[in-house]
Fold Alpha/beta hydrolase domain-containing protein.
Amino acid sequence: MPLSTLRAVPLDGARDAAFLSPARWPVAPHDRLGDHGYDVFEYAVSGVARLYADGAARPPATTGTAHCTTRVLVVRPVTDEAFSGRVHVELLNPSTGHDFPMYWPDLAGHLIRRGDAYVGMTCKNVTVEALRRMAPERYGDLSLPHDGAVWDLLGSLAATLRSPHGGGLLPGLREPARILATGWSQSGSFLRTYLSEGLHELHCAERGRTVVDAFLIGVSSGGFGPMGYVNVDRHGEMDFDADLRPVGGRLEQLPMDDARRTVRGSRVPVMELMSEDEALHHLWHQRPDSDVPGDLYRCYQVPGRGHESGLLDDSLRAADHAQSHAHGHADGNRAAAPSGDAEAPEDVEAAAPLRHGSSVYLLAAAVENLLRWADGVAAPRIDPIAVMARPGSRLDPDGLDHAGTYALRDADGYALGGMRHLEADLPVARSLRASDGPTTIGTWHREPFGPAELARRYTSPQRLRRLAGERARLLADRGCYLPEDVADAVEDFCRCAGRF
């Protein structure tokens, strides 16, 4: 059976009724999408997906099919004149049991100024069922019988979008010139599986053209046990403890030394964007960057940032929490876990992850580097974070104990190397990973410097601003910031620097 084309049925009133509609988030730019020429749409999309068997064959052997109806959330320019021709497809993170966006919140401002379209897809049975429960009149027809349907659904969605009007998902817009696929945390691991199992190549061969032009795998490491590589035939949920160890039994997973855990052999550009947390997990599976045709790869790692930092403040999503009847969920709190039903603490503020001011600028630069590469301009290479293994350390066969790895740090505690940013190169605070937190995904906090320390280091706010401008321009030359973001990045940095 060839890769199917999805049939799209619009769901009414998406701007106000769709779960995760950014128009309901009371903070710029989400709250003024109309002023930017954007609107929100939602569709139920149906198609037939093949199910695949885990094994040695590439691509995997098929075991059957599943008739699926899932939903996609579309945020796009209203007119074709404003459309850049670029579409960003996100597999919405399912780790809290409800769809969770980890791409649009940080990148929204950049996508809007570019004129790009965003498509978020519900990609797992547990999140489809959550939608059905929260709004049966709206989502009652959704059905995803097996989690293994995600591979063909991703290929079908990208192939369907790659046509005039996006196959009904982008009415009034021309055929997209570039499609970027992204997933973050658990759904980032979905993309690792999709590539390593040869499914993207299969889908390209079946369609006779490139299906996805570039892949961005966010905050996911192939070395992170059962979460770093999702078996192609995996279905269902498990409970995990605070260290993300399976509760009540051992989870079947790909052996830690299996070559599929390291992404190789893609003829379209692939970028892995990691926080310092994932860099510690990634040491045993790290590979060199490559410009070799047929193996286009980059890995960018961000020092001083944890797995969850940089996301939209959860308190701004009150409308989503009310719709899901999950006021106590701190979405993203366990973003790497395959479990879909883990409850977060009732006090969302207490559980909220540290916000990372540079995330919006670093992500925008990484995405532009990647898409330019799809257009033929190789992405800059950026040194990885300097991670070492203590003498005698060995790779944990479960991929969950990374106590033997550590990052080399400067005097302020910032890891050396990686995708540099102003907070790391001109510290005005210490960004620290708690030593008593979970051993896998760390708990990070920020300790601002006092007035005396700021004055000792930088003399005055004016001098700090001058130094920040010089450093930001240098980082833009290296591909860490976009030149057009330098002024805003410096302004945000200085505003959060504290009082002298």
